[in-house]
Amino acid sequence: MTITRLLVANRGEIARRVFRTCRDLGIETVAVHSDADAGMPFVRDADAAVRLPGNTPAETYLRGDLVIAAALKAGADAIHPGYGFLSENAAFARQVAEAGLTWVGPDPSSIERMGSKIESKKLMEAAGVPVLGNFTADSATADDLPLLVKASAGGGGRGMRIVRALDALAGEIETAQSEAESAFGDGTVFVEPYVENGRHIEVQVLGTADGTIVFGERDCSVQRRHQKVIEEAPAPGLPSATRTALHAAAQAAAEAIDYRGAGTVEFLYDPAKDRFYFLEMNTRLQVEHPVTEAIYGVDLVALQIAVAEGHSPAVTVGEPHGHAVEVRLYAEDPAHDYQPQSGRILRFEIPGVVSTFAGPAAHGLRLDSGVGSGDEIGTFYDAMIAKVIVHAPTREQALRQLAGVLAKAELHGLVTNRDLLVNLLRDPVFTSGAMHTTWLDTADLAALAASPGGEGTAQLSAFAATVALAEAARLARPVQSRIPSGWRNVLAGPQVTTFLHGEDELPVHWYGGRSFRSADLECVAVTAAGPDVVEIEVDGVARTFRVFTNGDRVDVESSLGHVALRRKPRFVDPSTQVAAGSMLAPMPGSVIAVRAAVGDVVAEGQPILVMEAMKMQHTIAAPYAGTVTELSASAGQQVEAGAVLAVVEATETDSEGQDA
Questions:
Q1: Long-range contacts of range 55-59, CB-CB < 8 Å, 24 or more positions apart?
Q2: CA gap 546, 349 in Å, rounded
Q3: Are 18 and 87 a contacting pair, CB within 8 Å?
Q4: For 51, what's the count of Cα atoms within 13 Å in the CB-facing half-sphere?
Q5: Fewest Cβ atoms closer than 10 Å to its Cβ: which of 240, 249, 339, 646?
Q6: H/E/C letters for each residue in 278-341?
Q7: How far apart are CA 449 and CA 447, in angstroms?
Q8: DSSP string, 487-519
């Protein structure tokens, strides 16, 4: 069959990625979108779009019946599921075929056989592929710790919990089941040994009627919350024999189920013992597929479509060409437990991009992004902003180039993991290839997420912002605009401009007049001043600072890195103040559980409420021991960021520290 019009049952970056290949192939495209996504770029990219009423995944992208109805209404003859949502739902794949549409993916039976991580391990063991042992919640003992609770139908770290105490296992299983049900519509979980300090290696395969093609391997060991942060291909430091054995095991896994289409076989590699174990097979396209496309010069989406049309692509896989590295740029705060962020992206510019949603013709920078300047990162979906990929002749060059590009990127409006990525790409643990899946679990995230410019960057950038704001105010005067900024007839002391840098106050003491001077910094001279650009010389070293203002937000860009500031108001509205002990919603989301009541005596750290936002659950705990005096939130309630959910009044203590 020949596909002429294809609907992508997905959103954001992956929808745009599939649309790009369809345009190259001359295939018309159809998007489906929730109400929250109506204005997003992927909707504009498609030739036609169909609304799915609602906002949450359960109302929209997980409604297979609505997606199929949309395809039929738009005259599509095929559906590509992307990744996540319904991409590994065998029932949906069958419904697509029953509706007379072409499913761009493997046979539903393959999805079922590999979709259960419990059954797939039995299948792989029978095929001779090394596997980890399985446990049940009842059979696990303290000697088996640590354990990993994992969603059978899941991925991306959702529905996954590490258990280090046996008495916590039941609760973690319950939480994992709840997350898995919310994210995937299937709350089944399983328990297996947790191998620490292992590496995550995965092999890309393409199953055709003529056999299985292996497109090498990727290393995805740098993870947070079991979700990949950095991916690269080929995997560094693998012994040649191990690499060959991994490819053979992946081929055996695919052929054991007569697999068709693009898929990924994931392994846990133990470098100390030079052994690997089957983890799972993802019967879909992977988020990190661009690094494989780069080093082999292929279009995996085009190959998926070719197989779905009944072809066996004639692809010769030689040695990998160069090295490719991908990072996932997220709206999250690494220094605060990777807390997801939401809001509008005010500016998003990455220098040096040579291709989007396609491998560069030669080496260079590729950008796959679902959003741009002015777009909103909402609370209903994943908080990924973009995938940034560099293809270079060597790993060393790829890491250096990608770190440099990210350091110069301009991303304003939200807290992101950009600085973390820059520091990780330059960290000796990563550059030496010694990373492992638990590396970030014990890392100093405050240090890793700090500005690469180092100590003093925020203070110097705040001074530059102060100069720019003073110049902007001067130019905006209706009269006497030629009088220098900050001019005083009698110089009694420095002026003070106060910013908020994160949660900290950052005062800037300065003098104006015919020239600007800092009262806080030594050996600093302003050599040029304007409302947008300020040049500052520090001990003989000159730098240019570009200043962007948007309301009370001030973003400063320089070779030292990006600094986000907010102007502190001179006067505070008393109505905005909250009582001591108030527990605030860290982000917009929904309250899914309330675990205390007014009048309850609680201990420090005791869970009071559980919120869900961006497909992850977040526990709101008591800040200290005390009594719950106010509880304004209820299960099912939607709340905004900063809303007071509950108040705990501290237990009074005497001077000896004992209860009064």
A1: 55/378, 55/380, 56/380, 57/85, 57/183, 57/380, 57/381, 57/615, 58/182, 58/185, 59/34
A2: 14
A3: no
A4: 7
A5: 240
A6: EEEEECCCCCCHHHHHHHHCCCHHHHHHHHHCCCCCCCCCCCCCCEEEEEEEECEEHHHCCEEC
A7: 5
A8: --SS--S-EEEEEEETTEEEEEEEE-SSS-EES
Q: Is 119 exposed, middle or buried (0-12, 13-18, 19+ CB in 10 A)?
A: middle
The pLDDT-based confidence of 658 (bands split at 50, 70, 90) is very low
Residues in the chain: 660
Closest to 552 in 3D by CA, of 488, 498, 632, 605: 498
- Cβ atoms of residues 233 and 214 within 8 Å: no
Identify which of 46, 26, 25, 43 has the alpha carbon closest to the alpha carbon of residue 34. Answer: 43
Q: CB neighbours of 428 closer than 8 A, spacing ≥ 6?
A: none
State whether residue 355 is helix, strand or coil.
strand
Q: Are 567 and 505 in contact (CB under 8 A)?
A: no
In contact, 336 and 635? CB cutoff 8 Å: no
**Angle between helix 12-25 and helix 300-308 axes, rounded to 10 deg:** 70
- Cα 16 from chain centre: 17
**pLDDT tens digits for range 353-362:** 999 999 888 8
Rg, the chain, Cα only: 27
Q: What is the pLDDT of residues 210-231, one digit of tens each?
A: 999 999 999 999 999 888 999 9
Spatial distance between the Cα atoms of 607 and 436, rounded to a whole number of angstroms: 31
Q: What are the structure tokens assigned to 376, written together?
A: 């909103």
User: Tokens 């959003």 sit at which residue?
Assistant: 371
Torsion of CA 292, 295, 296, 297, to 10 degrees: 100
Q: Which long-range contacts (CB under 8 A, 24 or more apart) does 430-437 make?
A: 430/222, 430/230, 430/399, 431/396, 431/399, 433/236, 433/237, 435/199, 435/221, 435/222, 436/196, 436/197, 436/198, 436/199, 436/221, 436/271, 437/197, 437/198, 437/199, 437/200, 437/221, 437/223, 437/226, 437/268
Neighbours of 441 (CB within 10 A): 14
Cα–Cα distance, 647 to 599 (Å, whole number): 11
Report which DSSP code applies to 585.
P
Cβ contact 546:556 at 8 Å? yes
pLDDT band at 190 (very low <50, low <70, confident <90, very high): confident
Element (H, E) at 160: strand 160-163
Give the integer Cα–Cα distance in Å for 498 and 505. Answer: 7
β-bridge pairing 626-631 and 644-650: antiparallel
C-alpha torsion sign, points 93, 98, 103, 108 = positive
Burial label, 289 (beta-carbon count in 10 A; 0-12, 13-18, 19+): buried
Helices 108-115 and 117-126: angle between axes, nearest 10 degrees: 100
| pLDDT band at 577; cut points 50, 70, 90 | low
DSSP type of residue 520: S
481 phi and psi, to 5 degrees? -70, -15
Distance (Å, rounded) from C-alpha 563 to C-alpha 558?
9
626-631, strands of its sheet edge to edge: 582-584, 644-650, 626-631, 601-602
Residue with tokens 């600093």: 524
Q: How far apart are CA 218 and CA 635, in angstroms?
A: 42
Chain segment 24-83, per-residue pLDDT in tens: 999 999 999 999 999 999 999 999 999 999 999 999 999 999 999 999 999 999 999 999
Segment holding 73, helix H or strand E: helix 64-74
Please report where in the chains the tokens 């174990």 appear, as a residue: 277
Query: Coil, strand or helix: which one is 25?
Result: helix
